[in-house]
Recover the amino acids of this structure.
């Protein structure tokens, strides 16, 4: 699946889950949908040719290479129904520790 397909599915998932989204009002709902669209690229971070791995150059390429090694290749760990949510929760926890991303 290509990056635009991941994002399309993520945006649709965001729209479908709006009734259970934590925010109310158009700005919060738009942020929810956009966040899920962006997060849908995370499963392909394990391959160096993906949109997510090329996004910020050497930084994301290094992260992608590390994730690819830990996941034992593409579609091994990051597409897993248990490991993927755990990895996302870990990334969210790390993001919450920084003052800029805590909000």
């Amino acid at each position: 699946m290509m990056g635009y397909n991941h994002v399309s599915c993520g945006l649709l998932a965001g729209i479908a889950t709006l009734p259970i989204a934590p925010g109310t009002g158009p700005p919060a709902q738009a942020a929810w949908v956009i966040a899920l669209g962006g997060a849908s690229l995370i499963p392909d971070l394990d391959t160096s040719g993906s949109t997510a791995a090329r996004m910020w150059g050497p930084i994301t390429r290094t992260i992608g290479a590390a994730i690819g090694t830990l996941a034992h290749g593409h579609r091994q760990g990051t597409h897993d129904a248990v490991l993927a949510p755990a990895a996302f929760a870990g990334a969210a926890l790390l993001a919450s520790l920084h003052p800029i991303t805590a909000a």
Remarks:
- Residues 1-40 form one domain.
- The chain has six helices and no strands.
- The chain has two domains: 1-40, 46-103.
- Helices lie at 3-16, 26-39, 51-54, 58-71, 83-96, 99-102.
